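Hi D.,

Good news: the full-assembly prediction came through. Inputs first.
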Amino acid sequence: MRELGKLYGLGIGPGDPELLTLKAYRILTTVPVIAYPISENGNSLARAIAAKFIRFDQIEIPICLPFNVKEPSQPYYDKAAEEIAEHLKVGQDVAVLCEGEPMLYGSFMYLFQRLSGQFPTEVVPGISSTLASAAMLGVPLTYRNDVLSIIPATLDEIQLRDRLTVADAAIIIKLGRHFTKVCKILDELGLLHRALYIERATQTNQQIIPITEVEATEVPYWSLVLIPSQTQGC
Amino acid sequence: MRELGKLYGLGIGPGDPELLTLKAYRILTTVPVIAYPISENGNSLARAIAAKFIRFDQIEIPICLPFNVKEPSQPYYDKAAEEIAEHLKVGQDVAVLCEGEPMLYGSFMYLFQRLSGQFPTEVVPGISSTLASAAMLGVPLTYRNDVLSIIPATLDEIQLRDRLTVADAAIIIKLGRHFTKVCKILDELGLLHRALYIERATQTNQQIIPITEVEATEVPYWSLVLIPSQTQGC
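Then the structure:
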C-alpha cells in the first residue's frame, strides 16, 4: 500500500516574508504541493507572502472561500479538503499556507477538522499579526500579572464594552467596517488616548496612523487596535 | 562622531531552534554582540535555543536577573543596560535574545525602556509559546467572534475566576506553584474537561500530560494550560 502524504498547516507569519520561520521555509521549499486561500478577485495574501520561495515545479491549489459572509462556507471547505486529499492519498505532502498563526482564527482549522483524522498532519506555528503589532508599534504589551485579551471587533457593543473593561491590555482585530463602533466604545471607556492603530502589520504597505486621524471608510480588515498595558516597568 | 550601534530585541521563539524566523537568524548570525538573560545556576534558555547559530567570535553578555522575586530588579536592569550601552556607544550592534515574543511579558521590555530613547532600536517579533502551544496540542484555539485571553496564573483566585468566566478561549501561563489553585478554579467553573496541559512547548523535552495526571509539585514555570474555544467549526 502506498504511504499517505502529510498535511502541513504552515504558519507563514503576518506579511514580511522574512518572518517565516526556518521550519516553514524548509517545508515550503520542499513539499510538492502547496495550497492557499484566495479572495474574490483571485488574489492571495498567503501566496504573496511566500511568493519568492515558491518553485516553478510545485503544484498549487488555490482554495476558494465564500466571499459573502452570509453564504454557507461548508461546501467550499468540503471541496478544498477533497482536492487536497487527492494529493495526500497518492503520497504527496501538501502544505497549506496560513497567514499568521494557523490555529488562531485561521481558515486552515476547517481543513484540519476535515483531514487530520485521515492523514498525518503537522501544524507549524507562525507569527501572528496580533502580537507582532506590538513590536511594529514599539510598545511593550503586557507585564507580570497583566491579562491580554484578543477581541474581534465583530462583537456587539455590549460585549465589546464588557470584554474591554476587564482587559489590562487588548488587541482588537477584524476592524474593517466596525471601526467607528470600536472608537465610540474606546472613547466611552476612556481608552482612546491609549489606543494605537496599525494596518497590515509587517507588510510592505504597513501603515501606523494616530487613531483619531484614521478615515473610518478606509479601514481594511487587516488592521487592528492595540491597547498596551498601563503597568509600570521597573 | 562615531555612529551608534543598533539595539535589537530579537524574538527567538518558544524553544525549537527551527522556529527562529529568517530575520532573527540573519540578525543573530551577523551582529558582533549578543546578550541574553541567565538563571540562578548560570543557564540560559535563550542562549540554548540559539546555541547552534552563535559564532565563536561573537561577544556574549549574560544578563543577571534577580532570582528572588522579592528582590528589587531595577539595579539588575540598570546594570545590564549600562553594559549593553557600552557596546552601542562605540557603534557595535547588540542583539538581546528573547524567548518567545519580546513585547509579551518579556524581560527585554525593561531594557527597551532604558535604551530605546538613546539608541536606534528594532524589535523583531518571535513566536510566543502561548499561541504555539495550540499547534503542538493539535487544537484550533479561536473561531470567528471568540475572545482569547492570556491569563497569568499568578493572579489571585477571585481574579482568575472572573477572567476565566468571560473568556471563550484561554491560555493560562506562569503555572509553576500555582497549578493546584488553577485546577481548583477550572473544576469549579466546569472547565477542567476542556483544559489541556503542556510543558516546554516545542522544546526537546516538551511534555503533554492529561491535566488530571500532572504532578502538582513538578510543574515548571514554562508550562501552560490551554482552554480551546467550544465554537463549532463548519
